[in-house]
Amino acid sequence: MALIEAHGLTKKFRQAVKEPGLIGSLKHFFTRQYRDRLAVDHIDLSVEAGESVAYLGPNGAGKSTTIKMLTGILVPTSGSLVVNGLVPYEKRQQNARNIGVVFGQRTQLWWDIPVIESFNLARDMYEIPVKRYKENLAQFTEILGLDEFMNVPAGKISLGQRMRADLCMALLHDPKTLYLDEPTIGLDIAVKDSIRRFIRSLVVERGTTVMLTTHDLGDIEDICKRIVIIDNGKIIHDGDLAKLKDTYARDRVIHFQLARPPESMAAICAALPACETTTDGLRLSVRFDRFRLTAGEIAAAVMSRVEVIDFRIDEPEVEDLIRKVYLGQLSLESTDSDTAAPSLVEA
Ligand SMILES: Nc1ncnc2c1ncn2[C@@H]1O[C@H](COP(=O)(O)OP(=O)(O)OP(=O)(O)O)[C@@H](O)[C@H]1O
Ligand SMILES: [Mg+2]
């Protein structure tokens, strides 16, 4: 059995429907109206130990709700869920020993006491052996640079410092699974980088299973191999990042820097069937399907017709890809990868 096994996992929320203003409030007081909202809608998810999964989706898709069910904070409305042999909401305490959780929007640290005291409380709560606690604390303090604010109350440290301290707090008891709900939200690039490196090292060196929700796609390329996308409570994609790119980001663009303007664009375009060719002064860009043509073929076809000084190939941005998936611009069911490759026209 996989570490996380969810079948038909569903969470329905009852949301109050209230008209705006005082009259709305009064009406709502006397005749309350509700509507049901399926935040998570019959999802099947299976995550093996050691996997690093990016759990993506637009705002309100159901990501946090899923994480909350996996951690045992929320009780599913229906479906089955087993994490590390336990039903999380039935065995919350036992489950808590196996997992570490960081919610970027909320801290686990005690607000009024020095950060180190929160760590010490975690040590006592989780009954972490003293030796192990000291080793982990020393290691995380060094990697995450916690020294400078260790004795400052959590309420008085910056967001980036708080997030680093939260990560440490979540990991002191050596959890096998780490749930991260937007761990880099609002952080500067340097802190984001150090957090991503740290999480990556947990996956690689400790074999920690990571489930990460984020709107910052830089996080996923650094940390996750597998991408699960949820929209409207339903999983609309589950597969590895490389496959997602191969299937849906087939286009590449080569930008050529030319020595002089081409004599005949028509000849170049004719030599590059099924490509989108654009020019801007001494720049020539060719968009092509990399499963139909190779960059080498494109370069050869262009260079035989015009003098090229330099060229660069643009890979598709993961952000563009995910944006397209969110916007429903891609059919996730089928592709036309079987269509025959055109041959380049010789002049
Ligand atoms: N406690 C709650 N009571 C009622 N509705 C809720 C509750 N929590 C979440 N919802 C609703 O469930 C849906 C999913 O919310 P969720 O927080 O899981 O989204 P999300 O994918 O984490 O979004 P975001 O990217 O904005 O964090 C939303 O429509 C939200 O309004
Ligand atoms: Mg959320």
Can you summarize this structure?
The protein is of the alpha/beta class and 347 residues long.
Please give the structural blueprint.
Layout (H helix, E strand, L loop, with lengths): L3 E14 L3 H10 L2 E15 L4 E5 L6 H9 L6 E6 L8 H7 E5 L11 H11 L4 H15 L14 H13 L5 E5 L7 H18 L2 E5 L3 H7 L2 E6 L2 E7 H8 L2 E8 L6 H7 L4 E5 L2 E7 L5 H9 L4 E7 L3 H9 L21
Parallel strand pairs: 3-7, 3-8, 5-6, 6-7
Antiparallel strand pairs: 1-2, 1-4, 8-9, 10-12, 10-13, 11-12
The structure holds adenosine-5'-triphosphate (ATP) and magnesium ion.
Task: Kindly describe this structure.
This protein has 347 residues and is of the alpha/beta class. It is 35% helix and 27% strand. The protein has helices spanning 21-30, 63-71, 92-98, 115-125, 130-144, 159-171, 189-206, 217-223, 241-248, 265-271, 295-303, 318-326; strands at 4-17, 33-47, 52-56, 78-83, 99-103, 177-181, 209-213, 226-231, 234-240, 251-258, 276-280, 283-289, 308-314. The protein has a six-stranded mixed β-sheet, with helices on both faces. A hairpin with a 2-residue loop joins strand 8 (226-231) and strand 9. Helix 5 (130-144) runs antiparallel to helix 6 (159-171). The structure holds adenosine-5'-triphosphate and magnesium ion. Adenosine-5'-triphosphate binds next to strand 1, strand 2 and helix 2.
